[in-house]
Structure formats: C-alpha cells, structure tokens
Write a structure and sequence with these properties.
Blueprint (H helix, E strand, L loop, with lengths): L1 E4 L5 H13 L8 H4 L8 H4 L2 E6 L2 E15 L2 E13 L8 H16 L3 E4 L12 E3 L2 E6 L19 E2 L4 H12 L3 E4 L3 H8 L5 E7 L3 E8 L2 E7 L1 H11 L5 E5 L7 H8 L1 E7 L2 E5 L2 H7 L1 H7 L5 E7 L4 E7 L2 E6 L6 E3 L1 H9 L13 H6 L13
Parallel strand pairs: 4-5, 12-13, 16-19
Antiparallel strand pairs: 1-2, 2-3, 3-4, 3-9, 5-15, 6-15, 7-13, 7-14, 8-10, 10-11, 11-12, 16-17, 17-18
Helix pairs in contact: 7-8
C-alpha cells in the first residue's frame, strides 16, 4: 500500500470515488464540490490537503486533513480538521482506514498541531484516540421570554439585505468575524467567501447607524453563524423570531461575550452538546497553546502535576510564583490516562474518574479548558 498527498491530477478520480462512496447508502447525497467549495477543488492547495491510499497503483481510499486556525479567548493555535473520509467499495476491509488515520496523526504531529477535530458522532474513531469532547451550549430561542420588555415592533425582512456574493459585504463580514473572541478562521478572504457559498444557508446583514454592522447565517431552524455588534445581531434575531422558535449553539460561558448573553435573554431552554470528536495529539503542545488560561486559573496555586498516557507520552505542569513551565518529562506521573480520557480531562464536558485526584485543587482549577468548533467550520 502506498500513501501520499493528493495532486491536482487525482481530482477527477477522487471526486468520483468520494461521491459514490457516500451515495451508496444515501442516494440523495449532494456532490461534494457543491457541498464544500472551500475545501473541494482541483487546486494544488486543496488537493494537498488529501492523503490517498493506493493498492496496486489504484486509488483505494482518501481522507482530508485541513489546517484550522482557532481562537479561544487569549489562545490562538492551529488544529487539524478531518473530513471526507471514504474507501472505494472493492478495497474495504483492506486496512486503508487504519493506515490513513495513522498517517494523518503522524502528519499532525510533524506540523505541530496539538489537536485533531472531527465533525459528527463518529465513534469508530475512538480506536485511534478520538473522543467526543468540548462544550457547546445549545439554546432554544423564543420571543415569548422577553414579552414583558418594551422592544417595539419586530423588524421586517425588508430591514436587511442578504449576502449574495458582494465583495464589500464579504469584507465587512470577514472583519466582524475576525473580531470575535471565539472563532475558527479561514486563512484568506477568498476562503471565507467560499465557505459562505456552501448550500442550504441564508445570511442576513444588518447595517444601520443605530445598531452598526452585523450578520447572522441561518440553516433550517438554527442560527449557525453570527458576528458584529450585539445590537445588530439582536435586530436580526427579533425578525427571525416572528416566524417561531430558533436554535443557536454558542461557546462555553468562560469565553462567551455580550452577544451570547443577549441570546440567553431569549432562551426558553438550553442544553450541553459536545463540540466535536477530539484527539489530543500532544499534551505538551495543547497545554502550551492554552497557557494564557492556565496562568490565570493557577495564579494562586503552587506545585507540579504530571500526566502520563498509556502509550508513554508524559507531560509536567509546574507552577511557582510567576513561573509556569509545561514540558515533557520522565518523572513519575500523578495520573495515567488513555488518549481518549485525556480529551475529556482537558475539555469536558464530563471529566474522567481521577479517583482521589478529584479532591486536588489543580484538577479543579485547571480543567476543563474551553473548546468550541462551530458546525459550519466542520469539514
């Protein structure tokens, strides 16, 4: 078996394989170049995201590994977004799936990406270290919750314009997106525009002297993306709520802001979802990526704690005074976990059983760390 990165010359065969693989049990599945124009194309860049397995010179399976630039409050880092995994029918059960997953784990480690993220509930990836983790708050929004407030009449649809590919609108939306406290950033404005072109969504734009600039993207009965002034997002929301209830998924409380607090005023109920399937590729890299959070949380804590994984990775978190050091170590660990358990330890929502360590201030103060990956960013 040969595994290599994709080339533009692989595009037609790849597209035929991936479409037919997904349509085998879902005849109405849309074509992938239409579903994901930002990550499916024949360009050298996007084809370079692919890893393909070849058996006897024939393409057998593929997987996409896409860099995702994350901002979670004061932390900014690159993770690997994984998607469009498929295997051509006649090569199934030939080891392609395992070989490709092991390859992308190697590649993420070489790139220095501490996290690998998968969209959806794909428990088969658990054998390779992925675990549902991270916290997303799902709110059910209703105008009835604020019926005693004097908000005035709800705006009409004519109060907004919808995004239809205009460059100036895209630039303003990009700027608003880049100012968000929690975001997954496309590397260029053009990539951002292609992501907006994914089918099945409508984006409303509010731009007035009173509320300023804001936008909100809706799909089905949910608000899937929003940015800009809180007043502008609320104005769009009040229009939407004229037609009934809407849902929205927002980041954890620890890294939310004014707009999320506004949504909470309209929430008739809410729950907690895991944000993705998460693999901690390197504990040391992840904890250093989140060092701003740990410095603040452990400000009044002194000591050292060492975490060891069953495959041998071991990391130390040391804090004394103003000094905090996160580094690999060979010293005796305080706890030993599986790679799946460490995803839950770091990001929740349900911590693994640490036994007596649950009474230790370090574990209570440090974890879980915030992680949020919005649905439109999945690949």
């Amino acid at each position: 078996m040969e595994i290599r990165r994709g080339l533009p010359s692989d595009y037609d065969v790849m597209l035929n394989h991936v479409v037919q693989s997904f349509r085998e049990n879902n005849p109405g599945h849309l074509r992938f170049e239409y579903l994901f124009p930002d990550v499916i194309s024949a360009s050298p860049e996007t084809m370079g995201y692919w890893r393909f397995a070849f058996i006897d010179g024939e393409m057998a399976a593929g997987i996409e590994l896409i860099p995702r630039q994350m901002k979670i409050g004061a932390s900014e880092f690159t993770s690997g977004g994984i998607g469009n995994v498929h295997c051509w029918q006649k090569f199934r059960k030939s080891g392609c799936f395992s070989a490709l997953l092991n390859r992308i784990v190697e590649d993420m480690n070489q790139e220095g990406w501490g996290l690998g993220l998968l969209g959806g509930d794909r428990t088969r990836y658990g054998n390779y270290g992925w675990e549902p983790a991270g916290v997303a708050r799902r709110m059910n929004l209703s105008s009835h919750i604020v019926r005693f407030e004097d908000l005035g009449p709800a705006p009409s649809v004519t109060a907004f314009r919808d995004y239809r590919g205009d460059d100036e609108d895209a630039k303003k939306m990009w700027q608003a997106h880049m100012e968000k406290n929690v975001r997954c950033t496309r590397p260029t404005l053009e990539k951002f525009k292609l992501a907006l072109a994914r089918p099945g969504s409508v984006t409303y734009i509010n731009e007035t002297a009173e509320e300023g600039f804001a936008y909100a993207t809706v799909r089905g009965g949910s608000i899937t993306e929003y940015a800009g002034t809180t007043a502008g997002v609320e104005r769009i929301l009040r229009y939407l709520l004229k037609s009934g209830g809407w849902g929205v998924e927002v980041p954890p409380v620890s890294c939310s802001g004014e707009t999320e607090e506004m949504f909470l005023r309209y929430a008739s109920g809410y729950g907690i979802n895991t944000t993705a399937m998460v693999r901690v590729n390197s504990m040391c890299r992840v904890l250093n990526d989140y060092a701003p959070w740990l410095r603040r949380r452990l400000e009044n804590w002194t000591g050292e704690r060492i975490i060891e994984l069953e495959d041998g990775e071991k990391v130390s978190v040391y804090r004394k005074g103003e000094t905090m050091i996160i580094a690999e170590t060979n010293r005796i660990a305080n706890i030993k976990l599986t790679r799946r358990e460490v995803a839950r330890l770091f990001f929740g929502p349900f911590m693994p059983d640490l036994g007596c360590q649950q009474e230790d201030d370090f574990w209570r103060l440090a974890f879980p760390l915030p992680l949020f990956w919005a649905g439109p960013d999945h690949v």
